[in-house]
Amino acid sequence: MTETTEIYADDARIVQLIPADGWVAVYKDEHAEVRAPLVAWGLRRDGQVVPLDTAPEGDVGDPRETAGFDRVERLTLGH
């Protein structure tokens, strides 16, 4: 017997924010990489932790849903 877990929209709700100092979202196109600081990590009700950054308009969201997203990385000295 296979168990399935149903995910409801309410499960994706963020219930806690955790500072993301030193973390960036990296976006790529064929010419360059751009790093944008994360504003926080979001703990969702379903237990997942998601990165959060801001768009130029000021909206906060998951950078993984943005065109050109490549990865999240911790900044090191020299970046």
Describe the structure.
By secondary structure, this protein is an all-beta fold. 0% of the residues lie in helices and 46% in strands. It is built from no helices and seven strands. It has strands at 14-19, 23-28, 33-37, 40-44, 49-54, 60-61, 69-74. Strands 1-4-5-6 form a four-stranded antiparallel β-sheet, with no helix packed on it. A hairpin with a 4-residue loop joins strand 2 (23-28) and strand 3.
* Poorly predicted tracts of residues: none
Quote the distance from N terminus to C terminus. 50 Å
> Which H/E pattern describes the elements?
EEEEEEE
Mean pLDDT: 87
Secondary structure: number of strands: 7
Strand content: over 45%
Query: What's the shape?
Result: globular
- The largest beta-sheet arranges its strands as 1-4-5-6
* Oligomer designation: single chain
List the helices and strands and how they pair.
Elements: E1 14-19, E2 23-28, E3 33-37, E4 40-44, E5 49-54, E6 60-61, E7 69-74
Observed structural traits:
79 residues; 3-stranded antiparallel β-sheet; mainly beta; 4-stranded antiparallel β-sheet
Give a nutshell description of this structure.
The protein has 79 residues and is an all-beta fold. The chain contains no helices and 7 strands. The model has no long low-confidence stretch (mean pLDDT 87).
